[in-house]
Every structure is written in C-alpha cells, then in structure tokens.
Amino acid sequence: MIKILAACGAGVNSSHQIANAITEEMKKRGHKDIKVDALMVKDVNSEVLGKYDIYTPISKTDTYGVDIPVVEAGPILYRIPAMAQPVFDKVEAEIKKLK
Fold it and tell me: What's the pTM?
C-alpha cells in the first residue's frame, strides 16, 4: 500500500479535493493499492511525513528533513486537464518508483 498525504492551509476543502482527484485518477491508471489522506499544513511535521510515501501539498512547504517525494498538487484545483495532467503524471511516476 502506497500512502500519499495531501495538505492545504485549512485541511478542510482543497486537500480533500486533491486527495479525491489523485485517488480517482490513479485508480483509472490501474493503481488500486494507494491510500490518500488529507491534512492541514500546520499539522504536518516530520513524525506525520514519516508515515507517508509521497507528499502532495497545495504549494511548496517544509518537509522537515523527511526524504520523501514531494509533488506540488495545487494545479489540480483549477480543474483544467492540461494543468492537472502533469501533476498526475508526476504522482504516478513516484508511485512506479516505489513499486
């Protein structure tokens, strides 16, 4: 199981939209063994990040020295395929590296 963390400022709306979009797109691409959680950026720290394989914040944030792939996922929120596609491609590339 590959665990992905989506994070935004409030942890209420944007991170959940990102998490849902990544989950749906990766399932379409055949990656059913993923779990995407959503969280508020202020609650992200090294202990939290240490539990995940990929971090997908809405914008660039600190990774607290944890060495996991970071894919900035903000463009997903525009709901424009040409903007979201590169994000999904990067997430999928990281998933493939982990398998």
Answer: 0.94
Alpha carbon separation from 60 to 3, 22, 70, 71, 99 (Å, rounded): 19, 18, 8, 9, 25
- How far is the C-alpha of 59 from the C-alpha of 70, rounded, in Å? 10
Residue for token pair 């398998």:
99
**Does residue 32 register a pLDDT over 80?**
yes
Say which residue, 64 or 58, is predicted with more confidence. Answer: 58
Domain annotation for the chain: domains and CATH numbers: 2-98 (3.40.50.2300)
